[in-house]
Write a structure and sequence with these properties.
membrane; flat; single chain; 17 strands; 46% helix; 19% strand; GPI-anchor biosynthesis; transmembrane helix; alpha/beta; 5-stranded mixed beta sheet; 7-stranded mixed beta sheet
Length: 565
């Protein structure tokens, strides 16, 4: 009896020990293991990110129409509406909707504006009007002048200057006997054309979304323009390189520093709201082209045809070097001076005609100009010949290429339009506005795509750590995106561009953060391979003990049931 009691006590003690160990493992061990091995994932504004996935943008611009003396009668002035609002909506695809709002205000010209409109030329009038009041970024002022005005030539109906003002000549058929409603209806088509040229157009905006939406065949030209220009970036590196393949033939002198200050710096200063720029220069000796030009006996010159231009860049690019300290895109501008044995050298187009600038550009890379100096080689020339390069000629070509590569596209003017050249700054005010509209939309679309892609990635792969820094960057990008969209809707172009730049910077910092890659390649099967050797030896005895306890409890229950029966 004593032995049975001792055995029962030992068995009871074993059961209690097994239950205690199991309880400690389940109550303490499992939660502790789960807590110490869980993946930390900070909170993200998922609902706001999902709203940004459907891009709905409204671009608003203010247009002020000013009637000069002689365009409206006193009776018509009383009936001129103060403001008019026009909305235009385009559904690009199921996730992208664009709305354009034009807020038009009407008034008559002041005395000082009338004096400005009495200048001898349209350019002088444009400057005088700009001196009176500077229009804010993204807005336009259209002055309606009478048909008798001498500011515009007879065949010109609209003049667009270097600022944010335009002159619109009223038609002869609208001089007398028309109501104000008929006058405004007559002006409306021309005002729309002015807006298409000086402000944003649907074609330009959809081209800025080329990475997000598929463009229709009608937008192929805009697609080509967008592919030529560099993508929007907070900064750009501009490098000017002088290629001297034969230093024994000529000693080249170029005042690149003075040329940059005279021709490039005004443009860079004006583009400061769009991006930051850094400029450097270099001279490369014994740098040859990647192709051998052909000699044309009829012209007594060497030629490069269009098909061979694609092979010129790669060999030269290998010697240009790169700025490893910066991740900004690099715009390369190369001035190639042929050696005496292959000079003159001319670039030909598809029609076998000489290109007037003797230069070409490569999309999203830069431009190359061939500068011939064969006229310096006289019969009594002493080699190496000292040659001073005409920087005005060179910078005129590079400036035009720089405008194209930065996205300042030449707008096609409708018939009857006269567009003033951009002047010494290299960029008209309204051209800057067009670029800012496109870059704002492009930045918003890019940042929204980056953030939504990151959110989808983090949702699909649950073992990626989301630390507080990532969450902060994502929240910052979402907030900046919302502010940029709101500022676009309000017509504040400068603030919209600034917020869109902040959004794209924050979104890219979050997307490319190195911490997101730590557990990316740590799948579940590797977890089992690590944990099973650790936990299986400990869990097997506990499980067997629990199974034995359950079995004995069932056996006792059956025995009690049999005794009752």
């Amino acid at each position: 009896m004593t032995e049975m009691t001792t055995t029962e006590v030992e068995r009871r003690r074993g059961q209690l020990a097994a239950l205690s160990i199991a309880a400690v493992v389940i109550i303490v061990g499992v939660p502790l293991w789960w807590r110490t091995t869980e993946t930390y994932r900070a909170w993200l504004p998922v609902s706001q990110i999902n709203e940004l996935a459907k891009l709905q943008l409204q671009l608003s611009t203010d247009v002020e129409v000013v009637f000069a003396r002689g365009t409206v009668t006193p009776e018509q002035q009383k009936k001129v509406p103060l403001t008019q609002t026009q909305d235009d909506e385009h559904t690009v695809d199921e996730d992208t909707v664009l709305r354009y709002r034009y807020e038009t205000r009407y008034r008559t010209a002041t005395v000082m504006e009338e004096d400005a409109l009495n200048q001898l030329t349209a350019a002088e009038a444009d400057l005088s009007l700009h001196t009176l009041s500077e229009s804010p970024c993204g807005s336009l002022v259209v002055y309606v002048i009478p048909e008798s005005s001498s500011l515009l030539p007879q065949d010109v109906e609209v003049y667009i200057g270097q600022r944010r003002t335009a002159l619109l000549r009223i038609g002869a058929q609208m001089r007398v006997g028309r109501t104000i409603e008929q006058l405004l209806a007559h002006l409306e088509p021309r005002l729309k054309q002015v807006l298409q040229v000086m402000s944003f157009s649907h074609t330009d905006i959809t081209a800025a979304l080329s990475d997000r939406v598929r463009l229709s065949p009608d937008n192929r030209e805009s697609k080509a323009d967008s592919m030529r220009a560099f993508k929007s970036s907070p900064g750009y590196e501009i490098t000017f390189s002088l290629l001297n393949p034969d230093p024994k033939s000529h000693r080249l002198h170029w005042d690149i520093e003075g040329a940059v200050q005279t021709y490039i710096q005004p443009l860079i200063t004006k583009l400061a709201p769009v991006a930051n720029f850094s400029i450097d220069s270099q001279t490369l000796y014994y740098a040859m082209l990647g192709v051998n030009p052909r000699f044309d006996g009829s012209r007594n010159a060497y030629t490069l045809n269009t098909d061979s231009l694609a092979h010129v860049i790669n060999p030269v690019e290998a010697r240009l070097g790169s700025n490893a300290a910066s991740s900004n895109p690099v715009l390369n501008f190369l001035l190639y001076v042929p050696d005496v044995h292959r000079s003159p050298l001319y670039i030909q187009d598809y029609k076998k005609q000489e290109v007037p600038s003797n230069a070409f550009h490569s999309p999203r890379w830069g431009g190359i100009m061939v500068y011939n100096v064969n006229s310096f080689y006289g019969p009594d020339a002493v080699f190496p010949v000292d040659i001073n390069i005409d920087m005005a000629k060179v910078m005129g070509v590079f400036l035009a290429q720089l405008r194209l590569l930065l996205g300042v596209q030449p707008s096609s003017s409708p018939p009857g339009f006269l567009v003033e050249p951009c002047g010494s700054t290299g960029l008209a005010d309204w051209e800057l506005d067009r670029l800012m509209w496109s870059r704002s939309v492009e930045n918003i679309a890019t940042a929204a795509t980056t953030i939504t892609s990151l959110a989808q990635l983090l949702d699909q792969i649950g073992n990626i750590v989301i630390n507080d820094n990532i969450a902060q960057q994502v929240s910052s990008a979402v907030t900046s995106l919302q502010l940029a969209v709101a500022e676009l809707e309000a017509g504040n172009l400068g603030f919209a561009l600034q917020y869109s730049k902040e959004a794209i910077l924050a979104s890219e910092r979050a997307f490319f953060d190195p911490s997101l890659l730590h557990l990316l390649y740590f799948p579940d099967d590797q977890k089992f391979a690590i944990y099973i050797p650790l936990f299986l030896p400990m869990c097997v005895p506990i499980l067997l003990s629990l199974l034995k306890i359950v079995s004995e409890a069932r056996q006792k229950r059956r025995e009690k049931q049999a005794k009752k029966d």
